[in-house]
Amino acid sequence: MVKPGSIIGGFVIALSVAIQVITLVEIAHYYWLLFIWAAGLIAGVTYVLGGMAFDTDKMEYFTTSGISLGAIGVLTAYFALFQGETIFYSLTDLIPATQSVMVGWTFGAIGLSTIASFLVAIAPLFIVAGAGKQLKGVKPGALIGGILICGSLALQVITVVHFAHYYWLLVFWFIGLLGAISLAIGARSKWGYSSTEALVTAGVFIGILLVLVIWWTVSPQMISNILAKTTTVTNPLGSGNMPAILPTVFSFVAGVVGFFGILFCAASDKRRF
Fold first, then answer.
1. Cβ 252 vs Cβ 212: under 8 Å
2. 113 within 8 A of 21, measured Cβ to Cβ
3. Three-state SS for 28?
């Protein structure tokens, strides 16, 4: 029996690959754009695997799919905001050498890669539909959690790479994740074990997160330490103490977003820890 869904899925995959290859060969020799396409492929495949997996395995698949979906948006924004100049100078000789046209094709290369990634992400859905299989037990919480985790990590990495080379700022992200994991474990006490230690640990991490952001934004010593690591940064954040205070705030926000990302994932899973 002819399966139109599978045919359409194969056609969409071919179209996606063609768009991505043409972008890299004809427009810009910036091969990091392949990461956007790869994120779309992983998002689509893991979403389908999650829909067909047993309940015990669904959270992992859908979380991975959410992280990959978030990566599409994050990488698109990152390349547009921070790698535009590099892509500009990687444009091929086929692009007319005028400023406005080259700037347009710089963002066009990013946009085409994003389109290709979405196409390859939806192609597995057509293939599964053509095979006559149904995706059951979709977990929106895990998808949202994965997107939040990806966004929080991206914000933290951008902060320490482009705003302040002060790697102690990564502490915010790890504290946020550990606090969320502890809280999620403690919340499962209704299945018959003591949650006191886990909840106390979660409270400690939440308190540390709040104390650190207040201390680092008002302490002259911490501000001086962070400012000393911004001398080689190419994307300054204003003048005065703001180049030190804003990275701290960004890292705090990244930790909080990661915190809620873990909680969304945990809330979508009915298993015991």
1. yes
2. no
3. strand
Terminal Cα distance for the chain, rounded: 45
Q: Name the pTM for this structure.
A: 0.89
Q: What is the dihedral sign for C-alpha 22, 26, 27, 33?
A: positive
Question: Mean pLDDT in each 10-residue stretch from start to end of the chain (273 residues)?
Answer: 80 96 95 96 94 83 95 96 92 90 95 97 90 81 94 94 90 92 72 65 90 93 88 70 89 94 84 50
| Measured distance CA(13)–CA(272) in Å, rounded | 38
pLDDT at 271: 57
CA distances, 153 to each of 35, 79, 148, 177 (Å): 16, 16, 9, 10
Q: What is the SS3 assignment for 91?
A: strand
Q: How many CB atoms lie within 10 A of CB 60?
A: 17
